[in-house]
Design goal:
The chain is of the alpha/beta class. The chain is built from 13 helices and 12 strands. An 8-stranded mixed beta sheet has the order 3-2-1-4-7-6-10-5, sandwiched between helices. Strands 8-9 form a two-stranded antiparallel ribbon. Strand 11 and strand 12 form a beta hairpin. Helix 8 packs across helix 13. The longest helix has 21 residues. The mean pLDDT is 95.
């Protein structure tokens, strides 16, 4: 009898990331015959320690010859799956012991469901994303998708990985919107919980965060209405604020350029006002990292990196959308 779940994990082979996940999968309360584990090594070889640990839980190991990005790795893993539901996971999560059991119970109670979104929290229990409404977020480290539907829609769009620079982003939203367009019945299961490490903790991580916005243009081209209505929308009382940090980055760059032009035109007063406006926008960007003093030298570069990435993404998206 085929398993209920196929847990698919793309990875670059980091032992510190994978080891806790492997331990957590070995402790799942769902009977082992009801799920399989497929780990896709993206252009790397598993270390002997990791290979041994995966063999101990009877996981299937797949290796891509060259770095191909998470969308491709997830698709390759899904192509080998035999479970009724694909379980999208990241290599750095730590699922609760009853993670799969809770999802299985929800499916048993509502067998008509096609997609189940679990709850992903940071260490300490706070959600990784603040929900502005009840729409699904499709976080790929904790997502259950009926395999037959996944295959019908063609899986992940592989354009959300740029092999030239290694950037990937937005494949989660694109998959979700494609599933919705196909008529998927989607639900959220609050008891299917995984813990994800805090994102962007490193000194240079704000720049990595900014580079990801290369992928916005492709999602906006494919799903313009949903992109506008649901991507990075924040609820502040009765107000819905769209993409405040991204907009602050664009405003900062424009204000700095305008201030420089005003100085060249001998308009010192206008230049001063524009410079203050640029600083205010930069402060909003800095707030994303909770005004960490050590991050400021890198944060001042974030608006420029983000705007450059967005512009390149716009060019790239036009090319991809023109392809047959």
């Amino acid at each position: 009898m085929p398993p209920l779940f196929s847990v698919v994990v793309p990875t670059l082979g980091s032992e510190p990331k994978l080891s806790p996940l492997i331990v957590a999968l070995s402790r799942q309360t769902l009977p082992r015959e009801r799920f399989e584990v497929i780990v896709v090594f993206d252009g790397v070889e598993p270390t002997p320690v990791i290979r041994s640990a995966l063999e101990a839980i009877d996981a299937r190991v797949v290796r891509l010859e060259a770095r191909s990005g998470p969308p491709v790795a997830r698709n390759r893993g899904a192509a080998l799956a035999s479970g009724e539901f694909l379980v999208s996971a990241d290599d750095d999560i730590v699922p609760e012991p009853d993670w799969l059991e809770r999802a299985a119970a929800r499916i048993a109670a509502e067998p008509e469901l096609d997609v189940i979104e679990g709850v992903t929290v940071k260490p300490g229990g706070r959600p990784v994303r603040v929900r502005a409404d009840e729409s699904a977020q499709y976080i790929l480290c904790n997502l259950f998708v009926r395999r037959s539907l996944f295959e019908r829609i063609g899986g992940f769009h592989e354009g959300y990985y740029d092999p030239e620079n290694g950037v990937f982003f937005r494949e989660d939203a694109d998959l979700g919107y494609t599933l919705e367009r196909a008529g998927a019945r989607v639900a959220r299961e609050p008891k299917a919980v995984v813990t994800h490490p805090i994102e962007h903790p490193g000194f240079l991580d704000p720049l990595r965060w900014a580079r990801r916005y290369e992928m916005d243009a492709l999602l906006a081209a494919r799903y313009p209405d949903l992109f506008r209505e649901r991507i990075e929308v924040h609820q502040l009382g009765p107000f819905r604020i769209r993409r405040p940090v991204v907009r602050a980055c664009f405003f900062h760059v424009i204000a700095v350029v305008a201030a420089a032009a005003a100085l060249l035109a001998d308009e010192s007063r206008a230049a001063g006002v524009l410079a203050l406006a640029a600083l205010a926008a930069l402060a909003l960007v800095w707030s994303k990292w909770r005004f960490a003093p050590l991050k400021l030298p890198v944060v001042v570069l974030v608006p420029w990196v983000l705007v450059k990435a967005w512009l390149w993404g716009w060019v790239r998206a036009r090319r991809l959308m023109a392809e047959p």
